[in-house]
Design a protein that fits this description.
Blueprint (H helix, E strand, L loop, with lengths): L9 H12 L6 E5 L6 H13 L36 H7 L6 E4 L16 H10 L5 H7 L11 H11 L9 E6 L12 H5 L5 E7 L7 H4 L3 E4 L5 H10 L4 H10 L4 H9 L5 H15 L1 H12 L3 H24 L1 H4 L5 H13 L2 H19 L4 H16 L9
Parallel strand pairs: 1-4, 1-5, 2-3, 3-4
Helix pairs in contact: 1-2, 2-3, 9-10, 10-11, 12-13, 13-18, 14-16, 14-17, 17-18
Length: 401
């Protein structure tokens, strides 16, 4: 994968290239970014840049029969800000088969009692090729984990140490990409020595989403690279390149919160009328009463977890837009939204104060968290309905404090 294939992140690409060209590259980097920001894709592109034969021209190395093992590519006459994508090393790296780029990732005990990443490497190649912005949950479902939790076990740590100490086959550098080091747990202590003193010309790239779940002993031995959320216009452009209508792409990009994985999920439900669903819910809460509330809760509970998450995220986005209208004025705030979204947000401002809107946003975030952890949908939305009634009616805000 080349840097040019990534969505946005221009500053990050430039920073990584400068680390190489300025000889300021640490032997262990930790890419830390939220889901959907492209951390794994960025690590893959960086690894390809490192092994690219035009970025780092190889010397001829005779094999045991005296012939040239590597053909020396022409030395780069100009500075390269991306891998060439054409040399043998780039083609192998793009296909995830370069012998000097190793991958470690969470697995489950399915194929053997001592599962390691190599047992799942074929599935991993297919998965990452088709879903470069997927998350760990998607990967575990892809390999049939169901409710089982994936991890990077002690046997995988031994494999990592063995691979790290091998000589490189083709490139000057060996690169190890560890996806989701949060799954290491205490097993990560086995890697401390290689993180602190790896063999020469070895680069370790870790790609994580949750810093709090990583051992402090690992964090202290890596250089932290924080990956920002994607810009809405970059997500919109990427969606339009997939053939999505500009208005729909803009709406999805604004709601996605800088998360391209979320944008793709929203795209699947782009035809769902969340505005009508939200109107029905608010009318049931404020006007029509308990019977309408029970009916609405029964309907939303049937839609499935992903649709429930998208609905809550839509409501959160609408509330955030209402807050922006209060802060910036309708002309500035409406510049990035559709007319119907702005009209709805203006009406929300009439029934909710800023404090109430902030309280509801907290409730939506909490509900999304519990849905992701398989909470009972009927119970959750019933409790949420009651809490929203009290917040909007301004009977008490102590519920959320």
């Amino acid at each position: 994968m080349q840097f040019s294939k990534l969505i946005g992140q221009e500053e990050m690409k430039s920073q990584l290239v400068k680390m190489v060209t300025g000889n300021h590259l640490s032997h262990a980097l930790l890419f830390l970014g939220k889901e959907g920001t492209g951390g794994l894709s960025l690590a893959r592109a960086f690894a390809q840049y490192i092994v690219c034969e035009r970025v780092h021209p190889q010397e001829k190395k005779p094999d045991m029969f005296g012939s040239a093992l590597f053909n020396t590519p022409p030395a780069a006459s100009v500075f390269l800000s991306d891998s060439c994508g054409e040399c043998a090393a780039c083609k192998k790296a793009a296909a995830l088969i370069h012998p000097d780029i190793h991958f470690s990732f969470p697995v489950i005990s399915k194929k053997s009692d001592k599962p390691v990443s190599a047992d799942y490497i074929t599935e991993f190649r297919n998965f990452i090729t088709d879903h470069p912005y997927a998350n760990a949950f998607d990967w575990l479902q892809f390999i049939g984990a169901e409710n089982r939790q994936g991890n990077i076990n002690v046997h995988e740590c031994n494999e990592i140490i063995k691979n790290i100490n091998l000589k490189s086959f083709e490139s000057r550098y060996k690169v190890l990409i560890i996806w989701m080091p949060e799954a290491l747990g205490n097993n990560g202590n086995k890697l401390l020595k290689v993180l602190e003193e790896p063999p020469p010309d070895t680069l370790i790239l870790m790609v994580a989403e949750n810093q709090a779940s990583i051992l402090m002993t690992i964090l202290s031995r890596t250089q932290l690279i924080r990956i920002p959320s994607l810009r809405s216009d970059d997500i919109q452009r990427a969606l339009e390149e997939k053939g999505i209508d500009g208005i729909k792409a803009k709406k999805i990009a604004n709601i996605s919160g800088g998360n391209f994985h979320e944008a793709l999920a929203l795209l699947e439900h782009a035809d769902d009328d969340w505005e009508l669903t939200l109107r029905d819910w608010l009318n049931a809460i404020l006007k029509t009463g308990p019977s309408a509330q029970v009916k609405w809760i029964d309907e939303i509970a049937k839609t499935g977890r992903e649709k429930q998450k998208q609905f809550l995220k839509y409501f959160t986005h609408l509330l955030e837009h209402a807050i922006r209208i209060n802060a910036l004025g309708i002309e500035l705030a409406a510049a990035t939204e559709s007319g119907s979204t702005t009209d709805f947000a203006v009406r929300l401002n009439k029934i909710c104060s800023l404090e109430q809107q902030e309280a509801i946003v907290k409730e939506m975030d909490a509900a999304t968290y519990y849905i992701e952890r398989n909470a009972n949908a009927k119970l959750l939305f019933h409790a949420l309905t009651i809490r929203l009634y009290h917040i909007i009616s301004n009977k008490t805000l102590i519920l959320v404090n």
